[in-house]
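Summary of Year 1 activities. Much of the first year was spent building the evaluation harness for sequence design. The harness presents a backbone, in tokenized form, and records the residue chosen at every position. We chose the following record to illustrate the format because it has been used consistently in internal testing since the harness was completed.
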């Protein structure tokens, strides 16, 4: 493999991971969500409520993209928006009951994804891979 193929390889890994996630969600009966929706739900499972700006920073998307993703999740009753009682300009996003019910699925899909990703890769190789990928990311 040529070293110039790294971006193509990373792109293919991302595509495969996204396909894996969508297929797993389908098997749980969760339809119509993309992995980027899952990023928001996963963040909210870890943090009870977040502003749009916090979500944007957490998952690495711009605020307009987050707004569109959150609106779709609202339409599917997975999340809701509420205004801060002290500062009406601040809008929080929180999970609904339906959204919180996704936690077991998210935990299992995440576990299965990581198991697939790291199959036949030693702990030392994992650590070195993460260091290298972090360096590549920081180069940008």
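For this record, the design step produced the sequence shown next.
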């Amino acid at each position: 493999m040529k070293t110039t193929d790294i971006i193509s390889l990373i792109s293919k890994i991302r595509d495969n991971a996204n396909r894996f996630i969508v297929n797993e969600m389908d098997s749980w009966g969760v339809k119509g969500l993309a992995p980027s929706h899952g990023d928001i739900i996963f963040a909210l499972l870890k943090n009870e409520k977040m502003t749009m700006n916090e979500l944007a920073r957490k998952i690495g998307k711009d605020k307009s993209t987050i707004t569109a993703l959150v609106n779709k999740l609202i339409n599917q009753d997975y999340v809701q928006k509420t205004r801060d009682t002290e500062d009406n300009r601040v809008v929080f996003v929180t999970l609904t009951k339906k959204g919180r019910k996704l936690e077991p699925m998210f935990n299992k899909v995440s576990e299965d994804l990581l198991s697939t990703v790291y199959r036949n890769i030693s702990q030392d190789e994992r650590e070195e891979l993460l260091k290298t990928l972090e360096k590549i990311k920081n180069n940008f």
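The chain has a mean pLDDT of 92. Quantitative recovery figures across the full test set are reported in Table 2.
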